[in-house]
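We emphasize that the prediction below concerns an isolated chain of 185 residues; any contacts that depend on oligomerization or on bound cofactors are therefore not represented. The input was used exactly as deposited, without trimming of termini.
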Amino acid sequence: MTRSQPLPPPELSDIIKLSDIGGMAIKGQIVADENQRRALAKRFDLPSIEAITADYRLEANEEEITFAGTIHSELHQSCAISGQPFPVRVDEPFNIIFVEKTDTPPGEEEIELESEDCDTIEYEAAQIDLGEAVAQTLYLALDPYPRGPDADSIAEKKGLKSEEEAGPFGALAALKAGLGENKPS
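Result of the prediction step, given as a token string:
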């Protein structure tokens, strides 16, 4: 049996103990410093992250903790066509529910996820990491196939098809156009 390596600590960690939450809602802000932004840019394979700020409201009830607010970020992504970095602004609302991790082994219980369950994070040891939740939310808000301002002209120069041309209807249009050219006169 091989031992797995421990996970590295999160780049943007802001751990809150459940005992610090209490019965009143807490409003706060998370601001990533330069080292945290640089480490997150490396983790997310981004040229740079200039700013990350999250304004939030944290509230606990008997079964869950609600973490809601908005992430604001200025960063650079690499264009999927040219590879050139271009500026991106992210303003992403979030609503995350923290629930206590259960001891049910995987596969023992069948779970059907609802859309609202997709933003649920389990916690353990009576603490939650708000910073890591913000980092994950930012990553999920990024366009997985970012197109910079010159993407269309570069794609055209390289002979790449547009999304419309490459999709199923584009193939039908090309087939129809080809059939139209082969009609007897």
